[in-house]
Amino acid sequence: MNSIIEVKNFSKTYGDFKAVNDISFEVEEGTIFAFLGPNGAGKSTTINTLCTIFEKTSGTLLIDGKDVTTQKSEVRSAIGVVFQDSTLDTKMTIEENLKMHCVFYHVPKKEVEERIQFVLNLVDLVEERKKFVGALSGGMKRRVEIARGLIHYPKVLFLDEPTTGLDPQTRAHIWEYILKLQKERNITIFLTTHYMEEAEVCNKIAIIDGGKIVAHDTPYALKREFTKDKAFITTKDGTKLEQLLSEYNLNFVKKEGYYKVDAEPIDVLLQVISLQKEDITDIEIKKGTFNDVFLEITGKKIREES
Amino acid sequence: MSTIVALWKRGLKAFVRNRTGLIFSLIFPLFFVYVFGAIFKNDAIENPIAYMLSGVIITTVFENSLNLASTTVDDMVSGFMKEVLVSPAKRIEVAVGQLLSAATVSTLQGIMILVIGLFIGIKFTSWITPFYILISMICIGMVFSGVGLFMATKVRSGQTFQIIKTAVTMPLTFLSGAYIPLSMLPDLLKYVAYLNPMTYATAFFRMIVLEKINLSNAELVKEGLAIKINGLIITPAMSFLIIIMIGVIFIVLSTKSFVNTDFSRINRSSTDASALWG
Hints:
A: alpha/beta, Alpha-Beta Plaits, ATP-binding cassette domain-containing protein (chain A), AAA+_ATPase (chain A), ABC_transporter-like_CS (chain A)
């Protein structure tokens, strides 16, 4: 597989502030790549620089082999962008918005109608095509924007927090469209999000914090590396349990009424439990979540924006 | 080229669809014609309604072209401009499209008042007059679209922009001779009026509407259609030249400024434009 996005030693500074500090990564063609990070970590700066809106301070950024600084026009033709906030013309209909977009992206006139049908079908908005954008719900607007971002058949689709502020049902739908798209058209999707569960369906994840990439791998590998299953144990004899856990080198935290214990390696834990069978009244094992990965790596919780 | 046409059509569509705005854009100018026409009825002006109408038409073209071109700021806030700027469409075509659509819509508004004016006091004796009128409206529309777009690209804050826009258009309108003849202004304000490009636009346009092209300079000065600054007579033809020069300067400046503006400073998370250029 060849890399469609290549970023080498990219930095962006505002005065003394380093928004992005010397990051490098590659995205393979046809994959879904997620950029995770708390607010102000440098996610938007990176995405905006890749989209040719911001100017880099230093480094090399290539999309499909074209430089985002010197070959802006070529890069712009190769990408579709859905920004965090709506960039639709609310005084126009869905159809007019799409047609206008086709003009900006030099879509051949005789293909416009066919493509409008195709993208509206993809996001289930065929019936609404004559409706004014201003009258649509937030979820519908987002779908229109995804449709619009695709109509010029880009090689890479950038989605800056595509599901932020949407209800769970709409979020699920948007994800359906994204996955369908990647399968049908083999488009590379570069997205930022702060919903951890969304990151898990991606092929690769980069976690960015304080302008640096702090982890970059598949969701599975990250989870394996950074999370531990936990056991919540309630016992009648706390002192004995503490003693045993220390003896067998298992980390634990004493909580109100129970102990939170590392459940890995699992055979060691089972041994501890078997030695204290009579006193233990309750055990609950919890699998590590993606949120833990993030907490482990950045040491802070991702806050949800409103 | 197609980008220019698409943005031009967008401006026209927005104009046609905004019915309320359309009606109000007619009410105010006609109200001014009525009020000022009544005030000057007993004065030296021979046809006060036609005199006022010519001023009001050109003021309408001026105000609307400036306003419309500066709605580029609204397009920034609503986000639409971001969609345009991230596309392969050439920025210069985007700027030209915005300028042309503002000039066209403002000309259309001028024409609408002119048509009403034909029923209440304007009379043409020559068939060529309407063509002259149309050409001068388009020119003046372009000139002040340039000014509007230039202002829009220099905006630091959306709220102060509204105030600045009013602070610019109000004196330019009232010190142009469109409503109040320059001869009635105190000396100090007269000199301010001489620096006002709208003074020249108004004088030239009024001469065409009132069909006084063939008058001698002395007569033109007497009618307030040529401007006499300390013995130097600026004829309507010279006025037109001044306007065109100002127009060319601003159109070049605004397009350049639009192409070179660093849009990385746009802060879209803010709902109003105040944080836009921060």
